[in-house]
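agent> step 3/5: call structure_predict on target 'DUF7313 domain-containing protein' (Halospeciosus flavus).
agent> reason: downstream docking stage needs a structural representation; sequence fetched in step 2, passing through unchanged.
tool.input:
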Amino acid sequence: MIDQSVAIFGPLDRVVGPYAGYVVLAFAVLTFLTRKLQHDHVVEQAASADDVEQASRHPVHSVALGGFVVTSFYYLTLHHHSGIVMATLAVGVFLTDFFEIEARSVEIREGHDLERPKAAMVAGVIALLYASYITLFVFVKDYWNMVV
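tool.output (status=ok):
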């Protein structure tokens, strides 16, 4: 439940606040899915032209990643403890995606085979698992309490 005494965004907190965890989860899934689109875009760039010096970012993945970071920061204003963990993971995903595209640019310039964005996929999976935990744990809470 959201403490309305610390509602920073007023009406937005009342309308979107109860579903903010699900929005973060949706963006985590979307970011994870669009990473494949980003990688295919870079592979296509590398194969289509020999004079490409730098890989460009796919706009859909950039929007999804930006939305993930922004919604995780919004979630931070609602739930401080889990929000700081989620925001840290989202920034980690952003940073790994940034450095993965730079690594692909180096591979293109030097003529190496393109690798998959392994670090970004691992960071995305960890963020996706935590977003799933903070939103979907309520469905298994009773069973978990029986075990623990």
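agent> step 4/5: record observation. The CA atoms of residues 25 and 131 lie 5 Å apart.
agent> proceeding.
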